[in-house]
Design goal:
mainly alpha, 7 helices, globular
């Protein structure tokens, strides 16, 4: 699902398809909320709510966060690196508390 959303977002950015950007951002916002990824949810919300003049810029921020998630899913970076990217000011314990599980347990959900 992450890969498909990233591809959809990439294509919508390239075409300047603001409506598709908003739909994709909305879907990402909902998924991020379920997964307790508040920073990703905030970026998705900003993209969904952005005016036409700034939506491409906001969508690129969302694209970056989704790309990092895909890298973690593929094993190109560790889940620890991904979560410290999303939650740069949090300790391991704070991230684990936010997620309700360890990095490893979270990563296993993606297998």
């Amino acid at each position: 699902e992450l890969h498909e959303r990233l591809q959809t977002l990439d294509a919508a950015i390239a075409r300047g398809d603001f409506e598709q950007l908003r739909r994709t951002a909305h879907a990402c916002k909902n998924s991020a909320g379920i997964m307790k990824l508040d920073p990703l949810r905030a970026v998705a919300t900003a993209t969904e709510d952005a005016q036409s003049a700034t939506i491409s810029e906001e969508a690129q921020k969302l694209q970056e966060q989704l790309d990092m998630g895909e890298k973690a899913q593929k094993g190109e970076i560790t889940w620890r690196e991904y979560f410290h990217y999303l939650f740069p000011d949090y300790t391991y314990e704070q991230i684990q508390s936010q997620l309700g599980m360890s990095y490893e347990e979270y990563g296993n959900l993606w297998k």
